[in-house]
Specification:
Oligomer: single chain
Order of helices and strands: HHHEEHHHHHHH
CATH class of the largest domain: Mainly Alpha
Number of helices: 10
Strand content: under 5%
Shape: globular
Helix content: over 70%
InterPro entries: GntR_C (IPR011711), TF_FadR/GntR_C (IPR008920), Tscrpt_reg_HTH_GntR (IPR000524), WH-like_DNA-bd_sf (IPR036388), WH_DNA-bd_sf (IPR036390)
Strand order of the largest sheet: 1-2
GO molecular function, one term: DNA binding
Keywords: DNA-binding, Pyruvate, Transcription, Transcription regulation
Number of strands: 2
Pfam families: FCD (PF07729), GntR (PF00392)
Number of domains: 2
Protein name: GntR family transcriptional regulator, transcriptional repressor for pyruvate dehydrogenase complex
CATH superfamily of the largest domain: GntR ligand-binding domain-like
CATH architecture of the largest domain: Up-down Bundle
Structural class: mainly alpha
Length: 247
């Protein structure tokens, strides 16, 4: 068992992780300096051999953490920070995505319960139409027995839009896609979870329609309790592996 402790768990990088790592290497090597402009998205996609969504997600995350910034009429440039600060920030971004799933989930619960409450308070008829359209797209995918990760994300983002808090929505854009992807890849949606998730979505929408702030908050918290429990289970399993215990 002591020998097993010398092995490290293999982490499979996502395309977004790989793009972020390449940018980190270019900064570390001095090929990218503060103030330097990145190539256009289209050329980055061609050079990296990935879709535009992966490039956009990587840039969006690096912008959120202040590593990159997009200037009107100028494109995306490296922030005016020192090399050590930039390298450290990128390392933190990658470490957060890979190592701290539970903290990401806890942060999502805080953001989304507040988003639901604010949406119930501030939503317009246009917001309701957007949330309903996202829910219908989610329902159609589920009816066809197809994973609906994008539709699930859109439903939650439409609620964030209805909150009228742009910072809250930006925070959700950073953390929620990875949570949803990992949650589905780890097959945490079995045993009728898809059915109950749809019912929970409908209840959240109902309370937002009724402008019931407390109801929307509680419905969102109940909806996210499953993924929070799942993250707690993962943390316990990781602790047991680290201490050489059997699962």
């Amino acid at each position: 068992m002591e020998l097993l402790n010398n092995f490290k768990q293999i982490v499979i990088e996502t395309p977004v992780d790989k793009i972020i790592n390449q940018i980190k290497e270019l900064i570390t090597s001095g090929q990218l300096k503060p103030g330097d402009k990145l190539p256009p998205e289209r050329k980055l996609c061609e050079a990296l051999g990935v879709g535009r969504s992966h490039v956009r997600d990587a840039i969006k995350k690096l912008e959120f953490y202040g590593i990159l910034k997009t200037l009107p009429q100028s494109g995306t440039v490296v922030a005016g920070l020192g090399m050590t600060a930039l390298e450290g920030l990128i390392t933190d971004v990658l470490r957060l995505e890979v190592k701290d799933f539970r903290s990401l989930v806890e942060t999502r619960v805080i953001l989304e319960t507040n988003a639901a409450a604010l949406a119930a308070q501030n939503r317009t008829e246009e917001d309701l139409a957007g949330i309903e359209a996202a829910l219908l797209a989610y329902k159609n995918k589920k009816a066809a027995s197809v994973y609906a990760v994008d539709e699930d994300l859109m439903f939650h983002l439409k609620i964030a839009e209805a909150s009228k808090n742009s910072v809250l929505k930006s925070l959700m854009l950073v953390i929620t896609p990875d949570i949803l992807t990992n949650y589905n890849e780890l097959d945490a949606c079995g045993d009728g979870r898809s059915v109950s998730a749809l019912e929970e979505h409908e209840l959240i929408l109902f309370h937002i329609k009724e402008k019931n702030i407390e109801g929307a908050t509680q419905a969102m918290r109940a909806h996210l309790s499953d993924i929070l429990d799942f993250s707690n289970t993962l943390q316990v399993e990781d602790f047991n592996r680290s201490n050489g215990k059997k699962r």
